[in-house]
Specification:
The protein has 240 residues and is mostly beta strands. It is built from one helix and 18 strands. It folds into two domains: 90 residues, Roll (SH3 type barrels); 114 residues, Deoxyuridine triphosphatase (dUTPase) (Deoxyuridine 5'-Triphosphate Nucleotidohydrolase, Chain A, Distorted Sandwich). Helix content is 3%, strand content 38%. Strand 7 and strand 8 form a beta hairpin. About 8% of the residues have low confidence.
Length: 240
């Protein structure tokens, strides 16, 4: 069916656990490892497909023509609708799930959750009580193991209220949880204040923000394209 493809076609393809295109399996179109997208370019051997729900500027995924099919009419294909006058695409597709496994020391804790309709991050709670001394960093368990869907990462970020009121931040912010990690979620807290900070079981200590990830082709080259800025880095643009 590959010879019938053309730019703009809605297509379906399969990905592996790392989000890379893999062998097409027509028997599992409802599986989370099946992806839908739109063809933006065709070559002799590949279809360049932009996954549905991704930003228009994101790089397309290169899928071998032998492993891509026209999306069947009965499948739920993600769509983008443009909000009139806003200039931004409103994503209307059903996104894959972020999965959590409750561990024994997470019994009784709330599932990570969005706390408002417009929240970008899911609040996570401490599964143990401890004290973070001034200038100290502590690895705080949350009581949940995680499974991030292929094509995504999950970032661990500080909570603004704790940062402002208590000087508590996440040391490696944003920390990245990869899609092939299946362990417990931890928050690496740093106390930047001059007073000790008490963490109690159930306290909301950080937030998780799921983000789409593009995997780009890596090339070694002899020369890089020139720009006016060149290799000028830290502080090169000044303060004002």
């Amino acid at each position: 069916m590959a010879e019938k493809l053309k730019n703009g076609d809605e297509v379906v393809y399969c990905v592996d656990a790392m989000g890379n295109p893999t062998t097409f399996d027509a028997q599992h179109l409802d599986d989370p490892e099946v992806r839908f997208g739109k063809v933006v370019k065709l070559t002799a051997n590949e279809a360049h497909v932009r996954p549905n729900g991704s930003h228009p500027k994101n790089a397309a995924i290169k899928v071998p023509l032998s492993e891509v099919r026209l999306a069947p009419a009965e499948a739920v294909v993600a769509r983008e609708t443009v909000t009139a006058g806003a200039g931004d695409a409103e994503i209307t597709d059903e996104l894959p799930a972020l999965k959590f496994k409750r561990l024994s020391h997470g019994e009784g804790l709330p599932l990570p959750a969005y706390k408002s309709a417009g929240a970008a991050g899911l609040d996570i709670c401490a599964a143990t009580s401890l004290t973070v001394m001034p200038g100290e960093r502590r690895k705080v368990p949350t009581g949940f193991a995680i499974e991030v869907p292929p094509g995504f990462e999950c970032q661990v970020r500080p909570r603004s209220g704790l940062a402002l009121e208590d000087g508590i931040t996440v040391l490696n912010s944003p920390g990245t949880i990869d899609c092939d990690y299946r362990g417990e979620v931890f928050a690496l807290l740093l106390n930047t204040s001059s007073t000790r900070f008490r963490v109690n079981v159930g306290d909301r200590i950080a937030q998780l923000v799921p983000k789409r990830v593009d995997r780009l082709e890596v090339l070694e080259v002899d020369e890089l394209t020139e720009t006016e800025r060149g290799d000028q880095g830290y502080g090169s643009t000044g303060k004002a």
